[in-house]
Design a protein that fits this description.
The chain is built from 16 helices and 8 strands. The protein is globular. It has an 8-stranded mixed beta sheet, with helices on both faces.
Length: 364
Amino acid sequence: MLAEAKQFVGLHARFMGLDPGEVDGVLDRIGTLDGEGRGSWVGEWSAAADRHVRAGKPRAASNLYNLARFPRADSPARREAGELAAQSLHTWLLRSGAGERRTATVDGHEVPFLYQCGPRPDAPLVIMMGGIVSLKEQWGGFLQAIPRTGSAVAIVDFPGVGENGVPYSRSAGKVFTAVMDTVADSCAADRTLAVALSFGGHLAMVQSQADPRIRKVVTVGSPISRSFTDPAALAAMPRITRAALSHTSGVASDALDQHLSELALRPQEIADLKIPVRYVASLRDEIIPQDDWREAARLHDGFHVNAFDDVHGSPHHLRETRVIILGELLRHGGRTRLARLVEQLGRKVLRITHVPTASSHHPR
């Protein structure tokens, strides 16, 4: 799985804005996913993070500790790396004043999250959640960026990842509700936009059916239905993805397919979604089959797709993805004119267009 791990980290390193030369240098020194010493995955990434700690760069160190515990905290050294990622980001928060740590409670689990209030008390809320391998600390920069678009922001780990001990299941979407409840005293949590990537997007869609405060979901490469049920898609799923899903769900590998089938949104559930979904798809996605999002767009009139000729997460179309997300953030924060300008520039300069799909009009 080492080759798969290196490929996946290339994607996350791009999202984090890490120095490509440093990333390539660390990857060249790694010879095994196992162990803890020199040449091991956790050893080399942790050593790189330690150097940034000594240089007084805690946010960069947090990102590198994040990669050290990739793809899951299944050993003492990886668990320590995850803890150091959180500690380093907290150090950055204290120095920069960019935000704070708060805690929500979900089914008896205390779930820490990062929070920054908006520019006014009635600012709407944005909840950010990554997928099955990324820590919330990876998205720390949004604590400064999103309030500038007019919203408050909360960043929380995906279930079973980082400091979120709630196992991944349909009911785990209650973490969105718990976060909204926790910050409702300082923002308009009844107007929440979920920016939830990959498997986080699936969970946001599920929870939107139970909590109408989620007004819209923006996601990149989210599984919806067939990713969980199609035998061919399950067989083609990378081993590292299956291992991470088994870990986050708390189920044995031989019981994983049955567990995943229970997560799938059924056709009527997709049709009955009461919120719009903005979906960034990848035409060569190794995890999400095209039929998944194409079917969702046929079933739900509010399902809008932008597709790129790329692999999972569209790592080679980061500019386009960022423009799409920025437009949605500006619109949600009430910066409608600026949102239109950003979207127009995206269409003209980056040629961002929606994927045309045949809608089936269904009763609401």
